[in-house]
Each structure stands twice: as C-alpha cells, then as structure tokens.
C-alpha cells in the first residue's frame, strides 16, 4: 500500500475527527434520533457493526434496538424498520417523503448517478421513466402478448433437459439452462430476440458482464470507502473496475441490441399489427425528446438486473425447496395432473386455477425473498418516523424478510410450508395487501414487474414439476440451501446439481 497515502489518510482522519466533534458541539441542535449503538466520530458505528449489513444481521439489531433503529455508518445514516406498521408508514402513508432512493459510490457508477429508473430519486425523471416503461413492460397486455413465448421457452427447457442423459442420472446444474430461458423471456420482450444455445457467444458476453456488475454492486467489500469519504482513495482501483464494466456493458447493449433494432426499424416497418417490441416504444420516447440516449441504455441495464436476476433467483429457490421437500413436490404434481390432466402442459391462464402452485410460489418468495431489504429508500428532506427525527438523505431499509419471517407474526416461519397460504394466511397476496408480506414492496416504488414475474414463475415451476421428478444428486439427501446476501439481494450460495427424471405418462 502507498505509505504516503496512508499517512495522508490518517492525518485527514484526525483533522476530520476534531472538526466533527467541534461542529457537533457548536451546532447544539438536539435531534431525537432512533435508538441504535452509540457512534464514534468519523466512523460512526462502522467499527462495531462491520460491513455485512445483510437481512439476518439487521434482524439481530432489530431484536436489540427495536422496530426502528439507526446505524451511523461513517457519514451515512442507515435507518432500518422492522415492523408491519412502520413498513406501512414508509411505503404507503409517507410514501412520497420516503419514496426516493439512495445510491452508494458503486451504484452511482452503474446507474450514471440515477439516469435510470430503479435508482433515481422520486421526482419528475422517475415519473417520466415509469410512464415510458409501463406500456412496453408492465401491463397485462404484455403478459397476453408474450406468454406464448414464455411457454415455448419453458417447453424448450424441458426438451433440452430430457435430451441430456446426465440429467436423469448424475444430475445437471439446472440453473444454467434456466438462466438462458430467463434471458430469452426478457430479450424477446425487449428486442424481439432470443439466444438459441447456452454457448451463444453474445449470450456468454452478456452473462459475464451482467454477472460482474452484480458481484461488484452487491458486494459489501467497498462499504468502508462509501461510508467514510476520507478512505475513498483506497477504493480507486475498485471504482475503476466498476467503471470499465459499466462502459463495456452499455456498449454491448448499444452496439448489439439497440443499434441493431434501429437498423431493422429503418429497413422494414416494425410497428404494424402491434409487432413493436419494448425498445421500439422506448426509442419513440427518445425521438420525441422525452429521454436521451443514455436513459435508453439505462432502461436496458435495469431490465437486465431487476427482471432477469430476481426472477431467476426465485425460480432457483423454488426448485431447491421442492427438491428438499419431495412430499410438497408430489402434492404440486398431483394438483397439476388433477386440474389439467396428466401430460397437459401448463399455460399462463392455467396458473390461476392452481391454488397449490400459487401457494408454493408465495412460500418461496416469503422464506427466500430475492430482495429481502427492498431496494433502499431515502427521504430527500428531514422527516419524522415513529416520533423520531430522520435526517435528510438517510438510507431507509425495510427489512421485508423479517416482516415475513418473524415468529411473532407467522406460525413456524422457518418451515417451508405452502399450506399456510391456503389456511391461516389464505387472504395474503404477493401484491402487498398485508404489510407482513411485501416481497415486491408496496406503493410508489413497488415492483412494477410483479405482473410478469408471477406468471413466469408459475409456468416455469409448473412445467418442471409436471415433466420431471426433481431430486438431489445420488448419495445426497438434500441440496445445500445456504444463502448469499448482498447489499439488498439474496440468492442461493451454490448452484446445485439436480437430478431431473422424466415422467412417463
Ligand atoms: C421474483 C421476481 C421479482 C422480485 C422478487 C422483485 C422485487 C422487487 C422489489 C422488492 C423492488 C423494490 C421495491 C421497493 O423498493 O419498495 C423492485 C423494484 C423494481 N422491480 Fe422488481 N422484482 C422482481 C421481478 C421484476 C421484473 C420481472 C421486472 C421487470 C420486468 C422488475 C422491475 C422492477 C423495477 C423497474 C423496479 C424499480 C421500481 C421503482 O423504483 O420505481 N422486477 N422489485
């Protein structure tokens, strides 16, 4: 490490500590802040709390400090709410006040400081982006237009798995094939494109760059430089890599997808008979001057992450739970056979007729919530919450996972038991009609993609269970369901090998 840099940083830290102490004494403004561990100058609670701010660690703090607590992480205020009433206050009652987003130094890079939709503050730009994206992505019309494509992609997964002799014997990493399916589901909507095979070079490049982006953004390892600006020089290398990945990724989206589509649009009419794909709508908005070229690319960026990864993680969790609970898997298969008839392949409209399938999906999203802390919210201005002062620009995390896994509110929450959604929790829906269960958030910043995610989950899990018996690999009683949490993501740590034995009808 550069010794002079360390010297400078230490000196800077000392000066900043003195200044911070003096300023706070002089200011004398007494705020009533939420409870939390006692902070020290400069570092706040960072030395006590560390970097790993995942949903389980934040749950442990909630047990100590209560349903609202404050962590002062260097210069950043982190407010965590962990009760249904406070979730309602943040997401609904004071939805405008807490409807902005914070970005950290890394998300600033990947979103061009909020030129996208997911990470932009609540205001004009967000409203415009949400309006422009709604027609091409987030309506029931999109579902009725693209569901045939999703059914076809799921059918191809089934065919490919059946054709692979390893699948029925030693097993395969099913997730790899499902990843291709999820890309195809979304790239058909976005660009009217699909990738034929897992080794398609363009698909490979996309996968690698998106994977790098997620790893870099979700990692906790850069927290110190984000929380404590004076340590930021040590983050230079990391941020340089982020910037390179961002540039390469946006260039790939532009050169291979957006420009291709523009060319196609100029050579033949793509808007006859409703054949427009999402990017055509987005490019129309650009032509009208509503958004710029960068906004277009950041919309593509958002869909690559917000839509593909979250849904894929949820499918992967659902399959893992079904493999580890063969009785539940069999019950689901029986429902599919009884309602649809053996061998009759599930389609999107069928998903409504299958209550146990719906319950399996809800239970997966409850126990294995893909975004367990929601995407961080923020208050642009000073605010009040539960009688406490919340300084402007605090990061507000709703611990949605704990809301849905707190034994004070749920019967044996650690159990994977879909029946709860047919029995004591029969009225609870995934759209947030109950603040104990908000896997897609609620209110202004809630997930608009729920309308696509639920049918895709239903079709995919339904087809797999209809066509295969899904088992752990030989010699293993269960597959490993250890978790990997990130800044606000939760996925399975190891992509398991799964045996898929074709059923004979
Ligand atoms: C199982 C799959 C999915 C889960 C669990 C999920 C979950 C979430 C959550 C928790 C949020 C943040 C809510 C908040 O901060 O209050 C969110 C936001 C968002 N999701 Fe999803 N999502 C999924 C699939 C999708 C899909 C398929 C799309 C797009 C087609 C999508 C697009 C978005 C967008 C654009 C936002 C940002 C909304 C805003 O800031 O205004 N998501 N999602």
UniProtKB/TrEMBL annotation:
UniProt keywords, alphabetically: Heme, Iron, Metal-binding, Monooxygenase, Oxidoreductase
Cellular compartments per GO CC: membrane
Pathway connected to this protein: Phenylpropanoid metabolism; trans-4-coumarate biosynthesis; trans-4-coumarate from trans-cinnamate: step 1/1
Class in the EC hierarchy, top level: oxidoreductase
Any GO BP: lignin metabolic process
Record EC number: 1.14.14.91
Annotated membrane topology: Single-pass membrane protein
Family: Belongs to the cytochrome P450 family.
Protein name per its UniProtKB record: trans-cinnamate 4-monooxygenase
Organism: Iris domestica
């Amino acid at each position: 490490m550069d010794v002079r840099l360390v010297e400078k940083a230490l000196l800077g830290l000392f000066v900043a500590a003195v200044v911070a102490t003096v300023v706070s004494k002089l200011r004398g403004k007494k705020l009533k802040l939420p409870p939390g561990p006692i902070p020290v100058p400069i570092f706040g609670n960072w030395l006590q709390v560390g970097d790993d701010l995942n949903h389980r660690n934040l749950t442990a703090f909630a047990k100590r400090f209560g349903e609202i607590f404050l962590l002062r992480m260097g210069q950043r205020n982190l407010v965590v709410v962990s009760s249904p009433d406070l979730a309602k206050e943040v997401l609904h009652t004071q939805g405008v006040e807490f409807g902005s987003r914070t970005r950290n130094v890394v998300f600033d890079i990947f979103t061009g400081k909020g030129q996208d939709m997911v990470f932009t503050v609540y205001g004009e730009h967000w409203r415009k982006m949400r309006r422009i994206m709604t027609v091409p992505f987030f309506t029931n019309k999109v579902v009725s237009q693209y569901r045939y494509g999703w059914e076809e992609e799921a059918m191809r997964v089934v065919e490919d798995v059946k054709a692979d002799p390893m699948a029925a014997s030693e097993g395969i990493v099913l997730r790899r094939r499902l990843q291709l399916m999820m890309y195809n589901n979304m790239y058909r909507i976005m660009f009217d494109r699909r990738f034929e095979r897992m080794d398609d070079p363009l698909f490979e490049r996309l996968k690698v760059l998106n994977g790098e982006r997620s790893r870099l953004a979700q990692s906790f390892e850069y927290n110190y430089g984000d929380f404590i600006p004076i340590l930021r020089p040590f983050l230079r290398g990391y941020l340089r890599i982020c910037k390179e990945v961002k540039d390469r990724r946006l260039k790939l989206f532009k050169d291979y997808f957006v420009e291709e589509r523009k060319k196609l649009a100029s050579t033949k009419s793509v808007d006859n008979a409703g054949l427009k794909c999402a990017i055509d709508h987005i490019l129309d908005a650009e032509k009208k001057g509503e958004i710029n070229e960068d906004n277009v690319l950041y919309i593509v960026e958002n869909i690559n992450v917000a839509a593909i990864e979250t849904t894929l993680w949820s499918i992967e969790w659902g399959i893992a739970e079904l493999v580890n609970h063969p009785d539940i898997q069999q019950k689901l298969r029986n429902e599919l056979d009884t309602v649809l008839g053996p061998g009759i392949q599930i389609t999107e409209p069928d998903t409504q007729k299958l209550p146990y399938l719906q319950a399996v999906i809800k239970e997966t999203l409850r126990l294995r919530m893909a975004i367990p802390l929601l995407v961080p919210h923020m208050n642009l201005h000073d605010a009040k919450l539960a009688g406490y002062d919340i300084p402007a620009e605090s990061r507000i995390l709703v611990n949605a996972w704990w809301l849905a896994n707190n034994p004070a509110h749920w019967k044996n929450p650690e159990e994977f038991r879909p029946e709860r959604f047919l029995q004591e929790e029969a009225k609870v829906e995934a759209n947030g009609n109950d603040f104990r269960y908000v896997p897609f958030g609620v209110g202004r910043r809630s997930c608009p993609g729920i309308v696509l995610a639920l049918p895709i989950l239903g079709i995919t899990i339904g087809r797999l269970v209809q066509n295969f018996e899904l088992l752990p690999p030989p010699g293993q009683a269960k597959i490993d369901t250890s978790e990997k949490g990130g800044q606000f993501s939760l996925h399975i740590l190891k992509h398991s090998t799964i045996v898929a034995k074709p059923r004979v009808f």
